[in-house]
Design a protein that fits this description.
This protein has 8 helices and no strands. It is an all-alpha fold.
């Protein structure tokens, strides 16, 4: 009887052993496949992160370059503004010294603002009236109040009180909309706004000069500054139009040379 039982059990055990082995192997295969899939996903995510880091590094470098350019432009604008103010002041002082003495060393009568005799003109380019920084523009009358207002605004600018100077020039424009100093006030407002990175306000001020006073001596400088303003606003096409305009219409002016240099840099 025992032999008969053993004869029945042994084939079943032997026959079942392959099934157990297959089950054990099957339980390990899915685990290995899952680990490979997770590793693949992690590697893919790592690649994406590396790309993101590279893009961010590029953006940081670009922003740093722009900040450096803005800082350099602002410094150049302050230097340019100081140079223009100093040049105008020096020219007016020279005119004052020459006009204050008549033949024989006798002082002339009726000196104007800053000691310049009425009607005297400066040898400084773009300066031709009795008030510092004013380019001669006939056809309009000038009262004492307007001269004083302009001189005060100009002195504030010369003293680097830029915000107070902006307010004073704006008051002059409002108070004397048809005055002799109004186009100059618009021009200096543009310079002041540009130096303080108020680019849109600068553009608007410069546009007043070329739109309302197309024959004014400040137009060449104004066209160049409009090109600078439009470039800062991101409109390179309009900037190039103004740079080309000042070079074609006023080829002998200093503004034409500046426009050529600036255009070459941004092309």
């Amino acid at each position: 009887m025992r032999a008969l039982v053993l004869a029945l059990i042994i084939p079943v055990a032997v026959a079942g052993s392959p099934v157990l082995v297959a089950q054990a192997a099957g339980s390990q295969a899915p685990a290995s496949a899952g680990n490979d899939r997770q590793l693949s996903e992690l590697f893919y995510q790592l690649q994406i992160l590396q790309q993101d880091v590279q893009e961010l590094r590029g953006l940081v470098e670009e922003q740093a370059h722009r900040l450096n350019r803005l800082a350099r432009d602002q410094q150049e604008q302050y230097i340019d503004l100081d140079r223009r103010v100093a040049g105008v002041t020096t020219g007016s002082s020279a005119a004052a010294g020459g006009a204050a003495v008549a033949a024989g060393g006798r002082p002339l009568a009726n000196p104007g603002v800053n000691g310049v005799a009425a009607g005297a003109s400066s040898s400084q380019p773009g300066v031709g009236s009795s008030v510092a920084g004013v380019a001669a523009f006939p056809g309009s009358t000038t009262g004492v109040g307007e001269r004083d207002a302009y001189q005060r605004a100009f002195d504030l600018m010369k003293g680097r009180n830029f915000q107070e100077s902006i307010t004073a020039f704006n008051d002059l424009v409002v108070g004397y909309p048809n005055g002799q100093f109004t186009p100059n006030a618009f021009y200096w407002l543009g310079e002041l706004h540009l130096a303080q990175q108020h680019t849109e306000q600068a553009r608007q001020s410069f546009m007043q000069v070329v739109s309302l006073y197309p024959d004014h001596p400040k137009v060449p400088d104004t066209l160049y500054k409009l090109g600078v303003a439009y470039h800062r606003l991101g409109d390179t096409t309009r900037a190039m139009e103004y740079f080309n305009e000042v070079q074609s219409q006023f080829p002998q002016s200093s503004a034409a040379g500046l426009a050529a240099s600036y255009a070459k840099e941004i092309q």
